[in-house]
Automatic annotation (TrEMBL):
Keywords: Antibiotic resistance, ATP-binding, Nucleotide-binding, Transport. Transmembrane segments: none annotated. This is ABC-2 type transport system ATP-binding protein. The lineage of its organism: Bacteria, Bacillati, Actinomycetota, Actinomycetes, Pseudonocardiales. One of its GO terms (molecular function) is ATP binding. Residues 4-229 form the ABC transporter domain. InterPro entries: AAA+_ATPase (IPR003593), ABC_transporter-like_ATP-bd (IPR003439), ABC_transporter-like_CS (IPR017871), ABC_transporter_ATP-binding (IPR050763), P-loop_NTPase (IPR027417). It comes from Kibdelosporangium aridum. Pfam families: ABC_tran.
Length: 292
């Protein structure tokens, strides 16, 4: 089941085209990472999905509904964690959640949710006294209040320490595993690589690459490196470079080239020092798109 369907989405600010013909779907029970360079159009795309903006062209559906026309109907089924939120500084964390309980039809336990985001010990602390990371955890608690079937997270771990980030990741994975769909944006590419089932990378208003994580990572070659003696190398499928004994192989078939390299080393009694074989990272793909 598709929870979000975006087809031919276009949005303009005057003559400037911020989003140009974007297409993607978010399925039930998956984490979808929408990534992009600064000014790529991902924030505008999120605002349209959340019902804050009407598309200039194209079609957006959330649970089969138009988010702009049917925003009230969708609010009960969607939790949103924005980059900027309007928390009331004078209220405590517990009072903030209790206030939210009166504003939404979703039901939950404030105390239980504070435990989930590890803020139980700060229940009676005013929001204005919380650290930046604690405020983000409170934002996250508000977004997942009542376990809505769709959660939209815009830069959720900004300001979090590594331990809090890991805890939030685990909660997001649990939401996915229990059927919640998660639309995530983040500048931490290792976060998207750790969490996402599907990834789309935007640049200049368009999606430049999209697919499952393995499909996206295959857009760039894997890399094999090792220190080798000055002898004739085996024939490999990838692009080979050798600089002062440092071998680098850029390959789209890492298994085949690694097998040939190890077989060659064994037959010639050669020890491959500092051998390393890694697939491409999202960061490499992201940088390649930006340069292009």
């Amino acid at each position: 089941m598709n929870v979000i369907e975006v087809s031919g989405l276009t949005y303009r600010y005057g003559q400037f085209v911020a989003v140009a013909g974007v297409n993607f779907t978010v399925r039930q029970g998956e984490i979808f990472a929408l990534l992009g360079t600064n000014g790529a159009g991902k924030t505008t795309t999120l605002e349209i999905i959340e019902g804050f903006r009407k598309p200039a062209d194209g079609r957006v559906r959330v649970f089969g509904l138009d988010p702009f026309a049917d925003r009230p109907a969708l609010s009960a089924r969607t939790g949103v964690m924005s980059q900027q939120t309007g928390l009331i500084g004078e209220l405590t964390t517990l009072e903030t959640l209790n206030l939210w309980a009166g504003l939404t039809s979703r039901k939950d336990s404030a105390r239980s949710l504070l435990s989930t985001v590890e803020l139980s010990h700060r229940a009676d602390v005013p929001v204005e006294k919380l650290s930046g990371g604690e405020r983000r955890r409170l934002d996250f608690a508000l977004a997942i209040w009542g376990r809505p079937p769709l959660v939209i997270l815009d830069e959720p771990t900004t300001g979090l320490d590594p331990e809090s980030r890991q805890q939030l990741w685990e909660t997001v994975e649990h939401l996915r595993d229990t059927g919640t769909s998660v639309l995530l944006t983040t500048h931490y590419l290792e976060e998207a690589q750790a969490l996402a089932d599907h990834v789309a990378i935007m640049h200049e208003g368009r999606i430049q690459v999209a697919g499952t994580l393995s499909q996206v990572l295959s857009e760039q070659p894997a890399r094999i490196t090792a220190k080798v003696p000055d002898v004739e190398l085996p024939k490999l499928l990838g692009e080979v470079s050798l600089d002062n004994g440092q071998l680098t192989v850029q390959t789209r078939d890492m298994q085949a080239d690694l097998y040939e390299l190890l077989l060659w080393a064994d037959r010639n009694a050669i020890r491959l020092h500092d051998l390393n074989a890694t697939q491409a990272s999202l960061q490499e793909i992201f940088l390649a798109i930006g340069k292009a």
